[in-house]
Amino acid sequence: MKKLFATVLGASLISLFAGCGGGGGAEIPDTPEGQAFQYRTGVMEAVAYKVAQLRGMAMGEIPVNQELFIKHANDVATLATMIPEGFIPNSAIEGSAALPEIWTNNADFQAKAMDLHNAAQSLAMAAQSQGFEAAKGMVQQVGGSCGGCHRPYRRRQE
After folding, report:
1. Any idea of the CA torsion for 16, 20, 23, 27, to the nearest 10 degrees?
2. What is the residue-wise DSSP string for 23-79?
């Protein structure tokens, strides 16, 4: 849990510093909406890192480490439950990729966050009980659940 907290905290600090001064980006307001934006950015960056590690192992791009594979899958499952907390009403501040549909179709958004949790949980359980080789094919489902939410609820980067 301490490592998960450190990962989220580190990602949040990176986001905070990237969004302040000199970078040409909008300054993040010191409001509950700005804090929600910073929080969700940190959580999403941690999820992206963890999923990239899972994918890298599954694709043979980085060395397989069974224990780390299980840990990353467990961490993604935990982080997925934290995602909705970062989407408080009216927190689509300047620089946010969040689309208004998150709030107008919040039940579906919440369900998609739970889909990510369930996919990562299934992956972690399979890896722990059956091993990496049996579970590695499930990484695509985890990534697909990320895209299942990003397509309807995240502004495309130009």
Report:
1. 110
2. SSSPPPPSSHHHHHHHHHHHHHHHHHHHHHHHHHHHTTSS---HHHHHHHHHHHHHH
User: Is residue 51 a contact partner of residue 76, using CB atoms and an 8 Å limit?
Assistant: yes
Please, are residues 145 and 73 in contact by the beta-carbon 8 Å criterion? Answer: no
* CB 83 within 8 Å of CB 116: yes
> Is residue 12 very low, low, confident or very high in pLDDT (cuts 50, 70, 90)?
very low
Give the residue extent of every domain in the chain.
Answer: 2-153
- Please determine, looking at this structure, whether the domain spanning 2-153 carries the CATH number 1.20.120.10: yes
Residues 87-129 pLDDT 10s: 999 899 988 999 999 999 999 999 999 999 999 999 999 999 9
Q: What is the pLDDT of residues 134-145, one digit of tens each?
A: 999 999 999 999
Tokens encoding 58: 């599954």
Q: Is-contact 98 92, C-beta < 8 A?
A: yes
